[in-house]
Amino acid sequence: VQLQESGPGLVKPSQTLSLTCTVSGGSITTNYYYWSWIRQPPGKGLEWIGYINYSGSTYYSPSLKSRTSISRDTSNNQFSLQLSSVTPEDTAVYYCAAAVGYTAYYAYWGQGTQVTVSP
Fold first, then answer.
1. Is the four-CA dihedral 66, 78, 58, 37 of positive or negative sign?
2. Backbone φ and ψ of 23, nearest 5°
3. pLDDT digits (tens, 9 = 90+) for 59-75
C-alpha cells in the first residue's frame, strides 16, 4: 500500500487547510483499515489528528475535533483532511498513514507534506 499527500503548501490564517491522500496498492474500503492524518509541528513530536476507517466512520482528536473533518472519495481511492480556522500553530508536516486494525501502529505512511500558515 502506498500513500501520497497533496495540497497547498501555504495557507493564510483563518482559512481552511485542505489536504488529500491518494492511496494505491489497496482499497480504502478494505476491511479493518484505518486511514489517519498525523502532523508534526517544527521541533515537536507527532500529533494524531483523526481517522476515517474502512466503513466510513470517523474519529477525531478531542483537541482538534471542533475544526477537523475527514472524508473519503471511494471512486478515486482517496481520503481528505479539512482543518478550519487555521493559525500559525497549525504549521507542520502533515502525513497520511494507514493502520490495519484498531491500533496505534501505522504500517503505511505517506512521505509527508509541509503546510505553512502565514499571512
1. negative
2. -105, 135
3. 999 999 999 999 999 99
